[in-house]
Write a structure and sequence with these properties.
homodimer; Rossmann fold; 3 domains
C-alpha cells in the first residue's frame, strides 16, 4: 500500500511521514498532496492566534477536548511557531501538550517551526492542513504565536479565526492589539478570572467598534463604513459581528460557550456562502503560489548557472539594476 | 527635472513621493528604482527589532540623534509595522517621533504598514531602503515591531541587527526570545535602570551561549558547533560574538557605547568580507523576487481569464489538484 492510501486509511505513521515530507516540500510530499486532493475539503480549519502569555496553548488543548467530548470529532492540532526559525523549539511544545491528549487515537498534534523562505509559512500550513483533512480530521486547530504578518497570512486560510487576549498584559502590548483585532471572528478573553477583566473587555469592545470589519467582510460588504456600493449578490445582510467570549482555559470555564460560538460562526459561513468563498481563496492561493514557484524553478533550470552569475555580477557592480536585469532576461 | 534627479539632489518632497510610489509598487516607483540603482550601495542599514514594551522607538530616536551629533551622518528611519496590516496606525508613530527630530533636514522618518501580499514586506522594505540610500542617507534605521517571521526576514536584509530587550517583561515573553536572539549582532538591554537588569543580562547571556551563531555565520563557519568543515576562504577566524550592551534610551545612557559597538561591527563586516556577502544576499533576493513576480505576471497575461477560471473551476470541484493543474498548464 502506498503512502497516500495509508494516509487515507488514517494510519498514524503514514500521517507523520507525510507531514514531514510536506514540511520539507519533498518530491514525495508533492506527489501525495496531489493524490489525496480529491479527498480534501471537509475539515473545519480554525485559526487561533494571540500574544504570548494569553494562555493560547491551554485554550487549544481545551478546544480539542471539547470536540472529542461533545462532538466525537477527530481533532488535529498544528502549532506554527514562526519565532523560532532556527531552533527546534517547537518540539518542546509537543511534549507539554501531550499530557492532556495523549493516548487518544482521534487526536493528532504536530508542531511546525518556520524554516521556509519568504511567504513559505502560509503555504506550508495550507499543505499540512490538506494532509490532516484527507486523513479524516473534522477539526483542524492551527495555533500561531505572536501578532505579525505570519498570523495575518494564516488567518486568511482559516474559516474561523480566534484571537486570544488576557487581562493585565500591560499597556505596551495594547498597542499591537488594534491590528490583530481586525482578523478576529471570535475574540476570546482568556484568564478571565484575573482582576481587570471588565476593563479589558470594555477596552477591547471599544476597539472592535472602531476597527474595520474583518478583511473578508471588508472586501465584500462593509459594515460601519460602506466603501463601495454593495453589489447585487451582496445585498443580503450576511454580516458577522465579532463575538467576544470569556474563558478560563486552565479549568475549562467558558469552553462550551466558546464551542457554541464557533458553531454559530460555521452556520453563518454556510448560510451566507462565505464558506465557499473562503475555500476558493485558499485553493486559489495554493494554485497561484505553486504556479509562481514552478515558473521560476523552470526558468532557472533553463538558464545556465553561468548566465545567472554573469547577470548577478553586473548587478553587484551596479552596471545594471535588478529591474533592468529582469527586462534583459525576459526580453 | 524628473523624480529620480530630484531624489538624487536630496529633495525631500521628491523623496516622500518616491517612497509612496515604491510602497504602492507603482510603475513610476519601479522606474525610479531602476534609474537610481547605480547611486545605491553606500548606506549602512541597521535593523532594530524586539518585543513591544522594550522602548525600541525611543532607542531608535537616540541612535538617530547620536549619528547626527557625533558623526554628522544623514539618518533615515523606516518604521515597519506588520501588526497593523489594515489600519493606518503607523501614522501616529510618525507624529510621536517627530518631536525629537523634527526640523533637522538631515533626518527623515517614515512609517510603513504592511499591506503587501505574502513575502511582500521584506521586498518593500528593501526597495524603500534603496530610495533612502540613493537620496544620500548614510545611516538607515529600520525598526520592526514584534518577533515573528517578518522581523527575521527584515534582519536578513540588514548589515547590523540590534535586538532590544528590557528587564521585567515577564516569563511569558521569555519564551519568544530564544528564536529572535539568534539574529542579534548586538543585543541591547534597554530600560537598564529597572530592577532586575542583572538577572535579565545573566539570563540572556546564558541563552546566547546556548544559541546558534547568527544565521550568516552559521552558514559559513560555525562557532561552538562546526556544522560543516570550514572551506578554504573561511579559515580565517572571522567570527562575530554577539555583543550585549545596556542602555537607558529615555535619558541617553549607554547610547554612545552602543554607537561604538555598531562601528566595531561595521569594521568586522568590512574586514571579514561579510559586508560584500551581505550585499550580494540583498541584491540576489531583490533580483530573484522580481524575476519570480515578473514571470508569473507575464504568464497570467498570456493565459486568458477564461482559461484561468476554467482550471480554477476544476480545482474547486476537486477534479484536478493544484499540482496537477500546474502540470497541465506548463506541460
Amino acid at each position: 500500500m502506498n503512502l497516500s492510501q495509508a494516509l487515507l486509511n488514517q494510519d498514524r505513521l503514514a500521517l507523520s511521514r507525510t507531514l514531514t515530507h510536506v514540511e520539507n516540500n519533498s518530491e514525495e510530499g508533492r506527489k501525495v498532496l496531489s493524490e489525496i486532493f480529491p479527498y480534501t475539503g471537509k475539515a473545519h480549519l480554525i485559526g487561533i492566534t494571540g500574544a504570548p502569555g494569553t494562555g493560547k496553548s491551554t485554550l487549544v488543548n481545551q478546544l480539542a477536548l471539547y470536540y472529542r467530548r461533545e462532538k466525537d470529532h477527530r481533532v488535529a492540532v498544528l502549532a506554527v511557531d514562526p519565532s523560532s526559525p532556527f531552533t527546534g523549539g517547537a518540539v518542546l511544545g509537543d511534549r507539554v501538550r501531550m499530557r492532556d491528549l495523549s493516548g487518544d487515537p482521534n487526536v493528532f498534534i504536530r508542531s511546525m517551526a518556520s524554516r521556509g523562505s519568504l511567504g513559505g509559512l502560509a503555504q506550508s500550513t495550507s499543505a499540512m492542513v490538506q494532509v490532516f483533512d484527507a486523513a479524516g480530521f473534522d477539526i483542524i486547530l492551527v495555533e500561531t504565536v505572536g501578532a505579525g504578518q505570519a498570523e495575518v497570512d494564516i488567518a486568511k486560510l482559516a474559516y474561523t479565526t480566534l484571537v486570544v487576549e488576557a487581562p493585565g498584559l500591560g499597556d505596551d502590548i495594547q498597542a499591537i492589539k488594534a491590528g490583530i483585532l481586525e482578523i478576529a471572528d471570535i475574540l476570546v478573553i482568556n484568564k478571565a478570572d484575573r482582576p481587570g477583566v471588565e476593563n479589558t473587555e470594555r477596552a477591547l469592545k471599544g476597539m472592535l467598534e472602531l476597527a474595520h470589519p474583518t478583511p473578508r467582510v471588508f472586501q465584500h460588504h462593509g459594515r460601519q463604513m460602506v466603501v463601495e456600493a454593495p453589489e447585487k449578490d451582496d445585498e443580503q445582510e450576511n454580516f458577522w459581528f465579532t463575538e467576544v467570549k470569556r474563558t478560563v482555559a486552565k479549568d475549562g470555564t467558558g469552553i462550551n460557550e466558546l464551542g457554541k460560538a464557533i458553531e454559530k460562526h460555521v452556520r453563518f459561513l454556510r448560510e451566507s456562502n462565505e464558506w465557499d468563498k473562503q475555500t476558493r481563496i485558499q485553493l486559489q492561493s495554493t494554485f497561484d503560489s505553486l504556479l509562481r514557484e514552478t515558473l521560476f524553478a523552470r526558468f532557472l533550470d533553463e538558464l545556465s548557472q553561468e548566465a545567472y552569475e554573469e547577470i548577478m555580477s553586473k548587478i553587484l557592480k551596479r552596471e545594471i539594476s535588478p529591474w533592468g536585469a529582469v527586462e534583459e532576461l525576459l526580453g
